[in-house]
From TrEMBL:
Entry GO CC: chromatin; membrane; nucleus
Segments of this protein annotated with the region Disordered: 157-200
Gene3D superfamilies linked to this entry: Homeodomain-like (1.10.10.60), iswi atpase (1.20.5.1190), MFS general substrate transporter like domains (1.20.1250.20)
Organism of derivation: Quercus lobata (Valley oak)
Record keywords: Membrane, Nucleus, Transmembrane, Transmembrane helix
UniProt-recorded name of the protein: SLIDE domain-containing protein
InterPro entries per record: Homeodomain-like_sf (IPR009057), MFS_trans_sf (IPR036259), POT_fam (IPR000109), SLIDE (IPR015195)
Gene Ontology molecular function: ATP hydrolysis activity; ATP-dependent chromatin remodeler activity; chromatin binding; DNA binding; histone binding; transmembrane transporter activity
Lineage top rank: taxon: Eukaryota
Membrane topology: Multi-pass membrane protein
Residue spans of biased composition, Basic and acidic residues class: 157-166
Lineage of source species: Eukaryota, Viridiplantae, Streptophyta, Embryophyta, Tracheophyta
Subcellular localization, as worded in the UniProt entry: Membrane
Domain SLIDE: 45-155
């Protein structure tokens, strides 16, 4: 079979490129066309803010995963032993077993995978007859996880503070040599003796 269209002649090429040249001259060249129709529509500040928001979300997700990992590392078997210090945020609807499972599964699946978390609750034999947990939506599970994560982060801060204080006390105990302890004892004995002499 032959081609339907005849081949292009050199004269047709010349007319085509001359037309492009005239259009380019009439609009002031190619760059002003691009500036006018494309680049002005792009809002650079908005794009940069979106990028910064996305990066902040990613770094927050990393912080959350580190906080959960730090909490779980304190237990030999967190699936059974994990304790959460609730304070005033205990809640009446979720039990401790459910919260423990939720924290461990978020650590396993990753923060933000709420559909997988919901599927894990539905397939777990621990919650076979817990219709309340099985009927929660992904948004409700996400809200509960955020509450638990805030509690875990607060607990981690308190734990770090206690650890820092213990290290400081241990360092002070190490710096006090036995001779300084003898001097301190001697001073107290001298005070006792001098105070006894004053009484006489």
């Amino acid at each position: 079979m032959g081609t339907v269209c005849p081949s292009t002649t050199p004269a047709q090429y010349m007319v085509f490129f001359f037309g492009l040249y005239v259009v380019a001259l009439g609009t002031g060249g190619i760059k002003p066309c691009v500036d006018q129709y494309c680049l002005d529509d792009l809002d650079y500040d908005r794009i940069i803010k979106n990028i910064e928001r996305g990066e902040a979300r990613i770094s927050r997700k990393d912080e959350i995963m580190k906080a959960i990992g730090k909490k779980l590392d304190r237990y030999k078997n967190p699936w059974l032993e994990l304790k959460i210090q609730y304070g005033q945020n205990k809640g009446k609807l979720y039990n401790e077993e459910c919260d423990r499972f939720m924290i461990c599964m978020v650590h396993k699946l990753g923060y933000g995978n709420w559909d997988e978390l919901k599927a894990a609750f539905r397939t777990s034999p621990l919650f076979r007859f817990d219709w309340f947990v099985k009927s929660r939506t992904t948004q409700e599970l996400a809200r509960r996880c955020d509450t638990l994560i805030r509690l875990v982060e607060k607990e981690n801060q308190e734990y770090d503070e206690r650890e820092r204080q213990a290290r400081k006390e241990k360092k002070l105990a190490k710096t006090e040599s036995p001779s300084s302890l003898k001097k301190r004892k001697q001073l107290t004995m001298d005070d006792y003796v001098t105070s006894g002499k004053r009484r006489k």
